[in-house]
Amino acid sequence: MPAYSMSRIVLTPLDCPAVAPRPISERLRSQLVYFGVPSGIAGVPTLGDSEYWFDPAEVSRWLDDGVISLISPLDTANMTEVELSEEQESFLGWLVKEGVKHVRVDGE
């Protein structure tokens, strides 16, 4: 039986090199855009390919509220609150616990 190698997706902290990379699912990989702050916003470094920056105040608020607000591309006038999944909550908790704000996605 042939051996299959699956690429593992990890978040590598760029601002906290002592923190070990964190494995994430493909699903969470596709959701990082919901939580990241784009380059060009005050205080956000220039981001490279597959890099994300997270605002600690927002991350704490999402954890406290247990939800994120999303804007539908089909209805930009209205926002929807979506309950955090267990994986999203664990990821946000890791950001807070480890003091991570800037990550790169590796292993795509």
Quick overview of this protein structure:
The chain is an alpha+beta fold.
Any descriptors?
two-stranded antiparallel ribbon, disordered N terminus, 27% strand, four-stranded antiparallel β-sheet, single chain, globular, 6 strands, alpha+beta, 108 residues, 31% helix
Task: Explain how this protein is built.
The chain is α+β, with helices and mostly antiparallel strands. The protein has one domain. 31% of the residues lie in helices and 27% in strands. It is built from three helices and six strands. A four-stranded antiparallel sheet has the order 2-1-6-3, covered by helices on one side. It has a two-stranded antiparallel ribbon with strand order 4-5. A hairpin with a 2-residue loop joins strand 4 and strand 5. Helix 2 crosses helix 3. The chain is globular. The two termini are 25 Å apart. The N terminus is likely disordered.
